[in-house]
Amino acid sequence: MQFAHTKERADALAAAALSRMATLAVAPTPNNYLLWYAYEADGLPDLRREVDRLLGDGTTFSPEVCEGLYQRHFTGQARRDGIDDASRKLEETIATVAYAVGTAEQGAADYGRTLQGLVERAGQPEQLNQTLASVLAETRRMAELNRALEQQLTDSRKEVSELRQNLTVMEEQASIDGLTGIANRRVFERILIESAAKAQTKGGFVSLLMIDIDHFKAFNDTHGHLLGDQVLKLVAKSMVDTVRPGDTAARYGGEEFAVILPSCTLTDARALADKIRLAVASRRIVNRRTNQDLGKVTLSIGVAEMALGEPLTGFVQRADEALYTAKRNGRNRVCTQAELERQIA
């Protein structure tokens, strides 16, 4: 990732980043420096929101927490840089092939002119042997040129095939949350836009679940981030196992998840949310190293159905408000926009 800052601005951001790292007792490693420099520069909105939330919660920025932030917010950028690099290599390969073809065309033209000159001189008997020798030599030169072109084209086809495969892999990786294996925030936002546009233009339904793991910070602080990651994977798997074909389960950020439900009414969305909640609550969390039973985790879920003509920000906000109402009302429950509206009334 690159930052276009003046020296004065960069110096100020560096000082602010190092000061905050010292205050939070964060080790001054290169990755941590990049993380906190980017935070101070406010160049990554998702990073800023997550760090602000962690600061507000009083989270200790342990090496594991900082590494998680780095992986979530910078490895995706590395993948995008990799895609750009592969694209440049593909362009270079195409240019090389074009140059080789141009060289071959020029060689063929030269060959034609050489043969024409030899034919004109072939009428003189004393020059016949010399002419035949020249034709043979020129033919060999063209054969070598064509073999070189064929090899270059073969090599280029192989390079293009490898680049295409690499691009496919990087595009897939850029759309997946590295820890849980489900869609990431970027894909969630793209599919939400597509689903909402389809529902608005064709008059269909689209509902949204916003999901939060109850007391996840306390669990993490008590049992450590490795077991916390185990919980995140459990929730993601339960979502994937429960949603319908065509639904999109995504990690929204931290311990927050979301599910986009095309062609789904509020009533059906609530029922599916309860299935996810019960699926997670029915599982026991076990420390695989010690075989200790750590109990279970629960979910709070907010549900909203998009209204005709509603902006996306309003749609997501209503699902968020329903989620926080579920948490305020005791957690381990589902709250819909309709229930929220009744409480307000």
From TrEMBL:
This is diguanylate cyclase. InterPro entries: Diguanylate_Cyclase (IPR050469), GGDEF_dom (IPR000160), Nucleotide_cyclase (IPR029787), Rev_trsase/Diguanyl_cyclase (IPR043128). Residues 204-339 form the GGDEF domain. Keywords: Coiled coil. It comes from the Bacteria. Gene3D superfamilies: 3.30.70.270. PANTHER family: DIGUANYLATE CYCLASE DGCM-RELATED, REGULATORY COMPONENTS OF SENSORY TRANSDUCTION SYSTEM. Residues 146-173 form a coiled coil. It holds the Pfam family GGDEF. The keyword Coiled coil applies. It catalyses: 2 GTP = 3',3'-c-di-GMP + 2 diphosphate. One of its GO terms (molecular function) is diguanylate cyclase activity. PROSITE patterns: GGDEF. GO terms for biological process: cell adhesion involved in single-species biofilm formation; negative regulation of bacterial-type flagellum-dependent cell motility. Its EC number is 2.7.7.65. SUPFAM superfamilies: Nucleotide cyclase. One of its GO terms (cellular component) is plasma membrane.
